[in-house]
Amino acid sequence: MKRYDRHPETKAVRGAADLEKKNGPLATPIYQTSTFEVTDNDKQVETTGSDHYYTRYGNPTNTVAEKTIAALEGVDAALTFASGMGAITTTLMALLKSGDHVVAQRDIYGGVNKFLSQWLPRMGIETTFVDTTEYEQHARAIRPNTKLLYVESPTNPTLRVVDFKKVAALAKQHKLLSMIDATFGTPINQHPAEFGIDLVMHSGTKYLGGHTDLICGVVAGRRELIERIWETRTTLGNCMDPHASWVLVRGLRTLAVRVARQNENAQRVAEFLSEHAKVRRVHYPFLKSHSQYAVARAQMSGGGGMVSFEVDGTGEDARRVTEAMSLFTLAPSLGGVESLVSIPVLTSHLMVPVEERKRMGITEQMIRLSVGIENADDLIADLERALEAVAAPSRAQVG
Question: How far is Cα 363 from Cα 346, in angstroms, rounded to an integer?
Answer without folding.
Answer: 11
